[in-house]
Structure formats: C-alpha cells, structure tokens
Amino acid sequence: MADSPSSLTTLRLSTSEQDIAQALAIWRAGGRVAVPTETVYGLAADASNATAVNGIFAAKQRPANHPLIVHIASAEQLSDWASDVPLAAQQLAQAFWPGPLTLLLPKAAHVPAEVTGGLPTVGLRVPSHPLLSQLLHAFGGGVAAPSANPYKSLSPTSAEQVLAGLDGRIEAVVDGGPCEWGLESTIVDVCGPTLRILRAGPITQEQIEQVVGQPVDMPQQHTAVVPGNVKAHYQPRTPLRLVAADAHAENGIGLLAHDAKWLQAFAATSTRLLPADAVGYGRELYGALYEMDQRGFDELWLLTPPYEPEWLAIHDRLRRAASR
Ligand code: AMP
Ligand code: MG
How far apart are CA 232 and CA 229, in angstroms? Predict the structure, then answer.
C-alpha cells in the first residue's frame, strides 16, 4: 500500500475510537497516516518496515539520504532503537520527554538504513501529544515521522494544511486540532563527548546545558552539518522577504509582523498580526504564512523579530523560508 505515490483516496480520520483503530490498522499494513504532534503534523509509518518508510519519502518527494526521526511511546523503549544510551541522553529524556526534543544516538542494528539515511545514528523522540501518545502505546513499535508536507514547503500545523500538500498521496490524516508548539523539535546529538544542537527548537540551549551540567555546542545556523539541514526550507510559494521597520511596502505585498503599530500604516486587508512573544509567535507562524500564501500577493514581507535567545528557532526557520 505504501508504494502508490499518488491518486489514493486520503481518509480524513477523527479522534474517535473507531478512527484510531483504523489509523493503527493502516500503520500495521505498512501505510502512512499523518498525525498531529505537539510540534507540527508528522507523516508517520512503521519505522521497522523499510517499505513503509520508503512510502514516506515517495509521498514527500524527499531525498533518500535525509534521515527521519523515530517516535516512540516512552523512554523505556530507547534501548530498542539505540545501541548505547549515554548518561546525558538519560538525563535529557528524563527532563524533557514526553516533549519537543529529539536525541541523536547510535542506532541499534535492526533499525532500517532507510530511516537513518544510511547514517550510523538514529533520531528518537517521545512526543507529548495525547492522541499520538495513545496511538504509539497501542502500536507498541516506533513510527518514523517527518513533517507532513512536500519536501521544502511549509510544515503543517493543521489537518487542512496536511491535505493541501499531500491529499491523494497518503492513506490518511487524523485531525487532532492545532499543534501546541508549531515549530519542529530541537535536535541534540548525544553521541560524542560534547553535546551538539543540530536544530534549534522549542527546548533551548540553556535548558539543555542546565540539565547536563556542561556547555553544549550550537554549530552555526547555516552550516549543513547533517543531511536534511538545508538552506532553503519551510517555504511558502509566494516569495518571502524579511524586512526592517523602515521598509516601504507597496500594493500587492502581504505583511506579517509581531508589532501592531508597524502594521497600522498599511491596509488591514493585506496584513497579519502575529503574537509578540516567541512561544505564541512560533505556534502561529506556519499557519499565518500558509494563509497569506493563499491570497495571491506578489510577495510576503515579514518584520524581522527581535534577536533574543528565545527567538533563535524562529530566526532559523525564517532564514530558510526567505532563502532564494
Ligand atoms: P524532519 O523529520 O523533517 O523534522 O527533519 C528531521 C531532521 O532531523 C533531518 O533532516 C536531520 O537534519 C535530522 N536527523 C534525523 N535523524 C538524524 C540522524 N540519524 N542523523 C543526523 N540527523 C538526523
Ligand atoms: Mg520537515
């Protein structure tokens, strides 16, 4: 079932008991179900089934060497997927799971190369979203789940956005409402003597350093340290530009900003106000870009947010979304 790349009938599933059972049956048969997580919607399939995993790559048209994150029900399953679980990994799992943190660990022998992009490491996460958590406990295994969008486009934070990109290309989507964080998980490599953050996200460098009690590296945002960490990503179809407060917008430009005063100078029909706090902003960002992308503007301009530590993950996504 996972082989057919297009023109499937994509089931819209609710959170009813019957629909949950259907989602599980699809996973067990090697199919793909898009599910809500607390970060963004994920396109999930059985991580121990290489054919099912290939179906994820086919639906997204994602290059095969970009590794996928494996989602598991609890930290007790870590040793099913990782050949070694260093102390720092145990500490971070204890502190932040279930939650938006992915740990990179040496992979167990049985983990399919398709999941890890041929790398000797595997990305693991215990999500906190109650529906996904319930599904994972019932499934018993792990699911590989990248964001449920075509390669390089905006990550979806609602079932509607999943369907906009993948309708007819996947077996089902479960509508579990909007996502709590709206930004992809923080990824930490815990394999070496010094921990490295490979992707900024909801859990900050400072929070991680506090738990492990040592400095943690955060390589330059634009260095492609791992496959999949690409410069152009998270992109709306309408060209996006990051602007300063003195930018002079003309007709045909859609404006997004966290500052209501800045937007006041422009017609309300072409503006979208975002929350002024980083957490609220992160939650609404992709949805706002998605909405503005539907409206036929020539360009989208977004007022550059503050350069404060809690805005780091947002700057990372915006740089890639605006990269041409
Ligand atoms: P996504 O699934 O789209 O949220 O992106 C997952 C990203 O996590 C990949 O593109 C990589 O940057 C990173 N990642 C996941 N697993 C690994 C791994 N085994 N080794 C290195 N990076 C990984
Ligand atoms: Mg993605």
Answer: 9
Dist. CA 108 → ligand 1 center (Å): 17
Ligand positioned closest to the Cα atom of 184? 1
Distance 279 CA to ligand 2 centre (A): 19
In sequence order, what are the beta bridge partners of 188? 103, 197
Q: How far is the CA of 157 from the centre of ligand 1 (A)?
A: 19
Residue range 110-127: mean pLDDT, rounded? 97
- Short-list 43, 53, 37, CA closest to 10: 43
Looking at residue 268, its pLDDT comes to 79
What is the model's pTM? 0.94
**Tokens representing 237?**
């179809």
Residues with CB under 6 A from ligand 1: 66-69, 104, 116, 119, 121-123, 146-147, 184, 187, 198, 226, 228-229
The pLDDT-based confidence of 232 (bands split at 50, 70, 90) is confident
Q: Establish if 222 belongs to a structural domain.
A: no
Reading the block at residue 88, the tokens are 């720092």
3-state secondary structure 51-117: HHHHHHHHHHCCCCCCCCEEECCCHHHHHHHECCCCHHHHHHHHHHCCCCEEEEEEECCCCCHHHHC
Percentage of the residues of the chain whose pLDDT score is greater than 90? 88
Residue 227 located in a structural domain:
no
Range of weakest confidence among 99-108, 182-191, 215-224, 295-304: 215-224
Tell how strand 240-243 and strand 299-303 pair up.
parallel
- CA dist 51 and 35 (Å) reads 19
Distances (CA, A) of 3 to 52, 56, 268: 8, 9, 46
Q: Same domain for 265 and 204?
A: no
Q: Are residues 145 and 59 in the same domain?
A: yes
